[in-house]
Amino acid sequence: MKIGLYFGTFNPIHIGHLIIANHMVEFSDLEEVWFVITPHSPFKKKSSLLGDNHRYQLVQIATEDYRRLKPSTIEFRLPQPNYTINTLVHLEEKYPQHQFNLIMGEDNLASFHKWKNYEVILEEYDIYVYPRIYNGEKPKSQFDNHPKVHQVDAPIMEISSTFIRKAIADKKNIEPLLPNKVWEYIEHMNFYK
Ligand SMILES: Nc1ncnc2c1ncn2[C@@H]1O[C@H](COP(=O)(O)OP(=O)(O)OP(=O)(O)O)[C@@H](O)[C@H]1O
Ligand SMILES: O=C(O)c1ccc[n+]([C@@H]2O[C@H](COP(=O)([O-])O)[C@@H](O)[C@H]2O)c1
């Protein structure tokens, strides 16, 4: 099966993530999208992170009604920080029957040359890129016209988990930015207060 891997910390998952993933399975040739919950992203501080299992629970309840969207905990058992190349090697070993591809925003493509073994990733995997909002000039990447890079015209939803965490701490009602069950779980558990 042709799988798109959507890597992120998902702290918490929000409708921006879901809209992108759903667009990929409906409007590209990807048959499933797996949300790979990253315990520790290489360029991010770990301090304000909810526990791995809570972030997994939130992705699980956000995707359970979508047949072709799935959470993946593969990185929970791997060394940290989590380099994507290591995860890809593990996924290949565990699921030799699948063909894996990467999903990323054009902002991440612009800094992709800083990722560990990015040349190897590009040699072995196709990358599905969706547009992001930018200030001023569109972020250029040396990989824009690479044969393995596929631009997908997904909608732009400028919501971030940072914004959501801060808004909850400030007692704002941001319920429409989260899948309903995710909002209820965060409320019930008193997260980010
Ligand atoms: N609104 C959005 N639309 C499209 N892609 C997004 C959006 N928000 C985040 N992403 C991308 O989705 C991936 C996973 O998101 P992640 O949870 O790591 O980021 P985030 O929402 O920006 O979180 P934070 O604000 O905590 O840094 C990242 O590659 C990120 O760039
Ligand atoms: O492998 C790398 O060198 C690498 C460097 C930066 C980011 N990543 C992956 O990209 C995902 C999104 O990164 P971020 O920092 O934009 O949330 C993150 O969850 C990691 O899995 C991977």
From TrEMBL:
Domain of life: Bacteria
Span of domain Cytidyltransferase-like: 5-166
Keywords (A to Z) from UniProt: ATP-binding, NAD, Nucleotide-binding, Nucleotidyltransferase, Pyridine nucleotide biosynthesis, Transferase
Gene Ontology biological-process annotations: NAD+ biosynthetic process
Swiss-Prot/TrEMBL catalytic activity: nicotinate beta-D-ribonucleotide + ATP + H(+) = deamido-NAD(+) + diphosphate
Signal peptide: none
EC number of this enzyme: 2.7.7.18
Keyword NAD listed: yes
GO terms, molecular function: ATP binding; nicotinate-nucleotide adenylyltransferase activity
Pathway membership: Cofactor biosynthesis; NAD(+) biosynthesis; deamido-NAD(+) from nicotinate D-ribonucleotide: step 1/1
Record family assignment: Belongs to the NadD family.
Primary role: Catalyzes the reversible adenylation of nicotinate mononucleotide (NaMN) to nicotinic acid adenine dinucleotide (NaAD).
Name of the protein: Probable nicotinate-nucleotide adenylyltransferase
Species this protein is from: Aureibaculum marinum
Gene (UniProt): nadD
